[in-house]
Amino acid sequence: MSPVMTGRTSVIANAGWYARRLSRMSVTEVAWRAREQAVRLAWARRQVRPWQLAALPPLTEVLPASRRRFTATLPAGTAALVPADARDAVVATADRLLAGEWEMLGTVRGDLKRPDWFHDPVTGRRSDPGAFAFRLDQRDERAVGNVKQVWELSRLQHLTLLAAAAYLTGDDVYAERVAEQLTAWWRENPFLSGINWTSGIELGIRLLNFAWIRRLLDGWPQAADLFERNELALRQIRWHQEYLAAFPSRGSSANNHVIAEAAGQLAAGCAFPWFPESGRWRQRSRALLERELRRNTFPSGVNRELASDYHGFVAELGYFAAAEASAAGTPLSGASWRLLCAMTDAMAALVDERGRPPRQGDSDEGRVVLLDRPARNRWPALLALGEALFGRRDWWPATRPDTASVLVAALAGRPAAAGSDLRHGSGGRPRVRPDRFADAGITIFRTGAADSPGLWCRLDGGPHGFGSIAAHAHADALSAEVRYGGVDILADPGTYCYHGEPQWREYFQSTIGHNTLEVDGRWQSARGGPFLWLRHARGRETAVTDDGTVASWTGEHDGYPAVHRRTVRVDRQALSVEFTDTVDGGRHDVRLAFHLGPEVDAELDGPEPDGPEPGGAVALLRWTADGADRTARLTLPGTLRWYLRRGQTDPVIGWYSPGLGERVPAWTLLGTGACGPGGRLTTLLEFSRGDDETAQAPARLTRGAR
Q1: Which member of 130, 345, 359, 669 has the lowest number of beta carbons within 10 Å of its beta carbon?
Q2: Which overall architecture, per CATH, does domain 436-687 show?
Q3: DSSP 321-349
Q4: CATH topology (fold) of 248-433
């Protein structure tokens, strides 16, 4: 539930949201949330403001200095195992950080020498550092700016990367910058003061990074002075854990947030066991992490949020928490290691030939601990880490070891608790690459590994999302992604933003924003807010066949009063993908969208869009990949009027988001019209092999609206 509101205007403005949010909670959840809000208000007396730090009495609830040790260090010689190219990339990135340069969520920053922990560079707003955290509304951009930008910096992952450079080079200049900024953060963000204390997931991620910063600085002579013998560090580590113990995410909010909170609490309890509650915190967080990993994951290994980016994020949280637990001699259960292994195998099965995952659902490019140069696509690095922990299967894509895979595996003991069964292929690991995850409603059709460029097609016939609010879902039932040679041809447009810019948030979540059918002007699922869904379309796969040459898939969903049903047929030999859409229950107005990737240009052939009669249409698609010009032909249903849209803002359509905070224009083919009883909307996508005329230019090209 949101933080306590201040001011009559804010309460009125958010009354509708509160009512909708409450409607997705059980009676039990409403009761404990009310109690939690009362506790939060009572904690106002515990707030520490920056100017009060010097007057605090000495911390007594901690082991004496003579008994405080950091023992969760890396084995001797681990740094030498890091590949030279990975080491060089870390050092080059760290040197940019020393110069104050950094890119964060699509924003290039030059202020990282002395960062302002409360300033949002996107809106230019700065939140009040002295405000009581539970009275700040993190959704109010007027008060806090774009909160994702502020929180991202305060995850302190840039300091972990600087610490990695110190570890790999032995150069104290990196360690000194870490100490300077870490101390500044601790001083300027005391307990419950400011925006960086408003979300438990942020605290959990910070604790994981605290542990790794201390570990990587172990060879620096002042490391113990920065942590074990530093009253401020001890207070911050304790404050973070007290907060997480008191305010865990629960009920309808227990998604990846609760996993991050538990992972951070477990890591701190293992790495910094210096407090009377450390044993209890460690035990409870371990049990919570194991329970929520099970709860958040399908038996197939796919994350239940059905947002690809969060699958990788949750797996990474599990890797780092499990490594900490193993290093502390309190490993996770074998069942939890097997679950993490299943999540890793699922990642290896879902990626295309370039190692790119699906773009299903929300993405905020979340990462846990930064030990390598940042990359937009985290999955190759996660697969390298998974390979180091579990071993690879023969069908996996190739991976390259990096800093994280070497260091985390060394800490975990490869892995201390997983057992050799996972590394050597027993324990139920798939012997061939799975292409269907029936429980998640995900099917991947692709051409063989020897075919290059290869065809990759993801089909969505599963649930809307996870839990009653399905926070990171999109209204994308029966949508499809098609890639050729790893290039987005029919693309999922992505996410772009979370907070602020509501018209953009709505578009990237909308039904018309995806490669699927909109019926009677409705979204398939009813939206109650940026992270709140009131009604969930239930999708299901009804038939899947594959003879090796031709694969066929049929799915349907109940998000409309009428049933939308889609059949997709992939002919590997012909290099074609055919879509057939039907709508039961009478005549309906429909809009059918096909969104192209930003690398693809499009020209539309057929009757003028504003002509008196609908007619057939063919779109010629062109792009360049690996130095070669490529084409495809998209034959569209003739009963609809077809339009080309690109980069429009009123209404918003024709956009692609490469990552959070970024959007670029891209072509959208939009068909409008009606579909009656028995009507079929058939679309055929045909790729040219370069030696035939499958996708030669149509004789007459009409002008697309730009």
Answers
A1: 130
A2: Distorted Sandwich (2.70)
A3: HHHHHHHTT-PPPHHHHHHHHHHHHHHHH
A4: Glycosyltransferase (1.50.10)
